[in-house]
Write a structure and sequence with these properties.
The structure is a single chain. The protein has three domains: 140 residues, Beta-Lactamase; 68 residues, Helix Hairpins; 117 residues, 2-Layer Sandwich (Heat Shock Protein 90). Helices cover 53% and strands 20% of the residues. The chain has eight helices and 14 strands. The strands form four sheets. Strands 1, 2, 3, 4, 5 and 6 form a six-stranded antiparallel β-sheet that branches. α1 packs antiparallel against α3 and α4 packs antiparallel against α5. It is rod-shaped, with a radius of gyration of 50 Å.
């Protein structure tokens, strides 16, 4: 089953939201209209009942006069019926014709219980709203001690409510369709930058070219922020790929030298037989290969370790430890403890400093001095290792990087780069 597109989901959500809003609004309007219409009818029935009660008390003979009880409410006749204490009809309005208002429900309560009340009733097939109120003994007429029953039809109210319901439903459907259409257009326009980003990402994935970047929209909204974040990620991937390529080249170079020496020594031993000097060279080459492999495994373990455990490390102390390992004591450390503090992984920093010092011993003059300087440079900590060798030209040195270590120094990144001739370069 094909998944529903984001644009379709946005349009559907907008349509549903509009429908829900209109339904809630329609329910509120319907309830308010129902309350107001029935409240107005009830007030009219009460006022008419009060008028009849006053007429019964002040001029009971007029109750039976033609037209005395007539009245209208809206476009419909108002039904009035007066009964005595036994429930016999004393007078009624002409709108009733030959019909009689029922004497049950609120009428019975007013007549026998002497309490006024509102209720619903029916006159044939016509629904009525009924108000009944007891009459006092004042006036002494035939209606004294009886009750007055006033009723009005609810047909007009029901028709108005039905029209309102139909109107709300029709408006809801139309608004939902319009909302879906408008939401589709807006979603298409709003998601167009995402479609462009997706197309660019597909091209990058197809070509495998991490140097390309996504086309960021001119607006600085969330889509623009996403494009910037993805471009930053592509930049990190490009740098990681370049570092991996450089690392493979450096590792190949470092491994090729002892392997070439081992191959030559083995060939010599096969032709001329065992020789102590050759065996010593083979042993030295094996040890060098073992050390290189140990370093590679340590780097792999640190790259895979998550999260990194950073701590405050004193570079001067690390340099002093590396100098103490010099068997001929030709390494000098410049700097006092506490002057070059960084936050990073102690094991990685120890190995980086140790590799720098050992490289200087291996490639510098046999009796030359090695100077390790550590100190603060503004908000960064800097460590340099220098020997007394001639060094390489800058053009040659760029292609002979054989090791690299990374530490986090006061919120910045410091790279210690080790060159083939023993010199060291630090880039922030």
């Amino acid at each position: 089953m094909r998944p529903i597109s984001l644009r379709a989901r946005v349009a559907a959500a907008a349509a549903v939201a509009i429908v829900v809003a209109i339904v809630l609004f329609g329910v509120a309007v319907y309830a308010r209209l129902d309350s107001r219409l029935y409240g107005s009818l009830d007030d009219t029935l009460r006022r008419r009942a009060v008028d009849v009660a006053r007429l019964s008390a002040s001029a009971p003979a007029i109750l039976t006069a033609p037209g005395a009880l007539e009245g209208r409410i809206g476009g419909s006749a108002l039904f009035v019926q007066v009964v005595d204490r036994r429930g016999r009809i004393v007078a009624r309005s002409g709108g009733l014709g030959g019909r009689v208002l029922p004497l049950d429900g609120v009428a019975a309560t007013a007549l026998r219980g002497r309490r006024a009340g509102l209720g619903d009733a029916s006159l044939g097939t016509e629904a009525l709203r009924v108000y009944a109120s007891p009459l006092g003994e004042v006036g002494g007429g035939a209606s004294a001690g009886g009750a007055v029953i006033v009723a009005g039809t609810t047909a007009d109210i029901q028709a108005t409510l039905r029209t309102t319901r139909t109107f709300v439903v029709v408006v809801g459907v139309i608004a939902a369709l319009l909302a879906a259409g408008v939401a589709t257009l807006l979603a298409r326009r709003a998601l167009r930058p995402l479609a462009h980003l997706s197309a660019d990402a597909h091209d990058i994935e197809r070509t495998g070219d991490a140097s390309r970047r996504l086309s960021a929209p001119p607006s600085g909204d969330e889509v623009g922020e996403l494009a910037s974040t993805l471009n930053a990620m592509l930049g990190s991937l490009e740098r990681a790929r370049e570092a991996e390529r450089r690392f493979v080249g450096d590792a190949s170079h470092e491994l090729r030298t002892p392997l070439t020496a081992l191959r030559g020594n083995v060939a010599y031993a096969r032709r001329h037989g065992p020789d102590q000097a050759v065996l010593a060279d083979i042993d030295t080459g094996v040890r060098r290969l073992s050390a290189l492999l140990d370093d590679l495994l340590a780097l792999a373990r640190e790259d895979a370790a998550t999260p990194a455990r950073a701590e405050v490390v004193d570079l001067v102390a690390l340099a002093q430890d590396a100098a103490a390992a010099d068997p001929i004591e030709r390494t000098t450390v410049v700097g006092a403890r506490g002057e070059a503090l960084v936050r990073g992984e102690r094991a990685a920093l120890e190995r980086a400093v140790g590799n720098l010092v050992r490289n200087a011993r291996r490639h510098g003059p046999p009796e030359g001095r090695i100077t390790v300087t550590a100190g603060a440079d503004g908000d960064r900590a800097v460590l340099t290792v220098a020997d007394e060798g001639e060094g390489l030209a800058a053009a040659d040195a760029d292609g002979l990087i054989v090791g690299e270590a990374l530490c986090l120094c006061h919120g910045g990144a410091g790279f210690f780069r080790l060159l083939e001739d023993g010199t060291e370069r630090e880039d922030a």
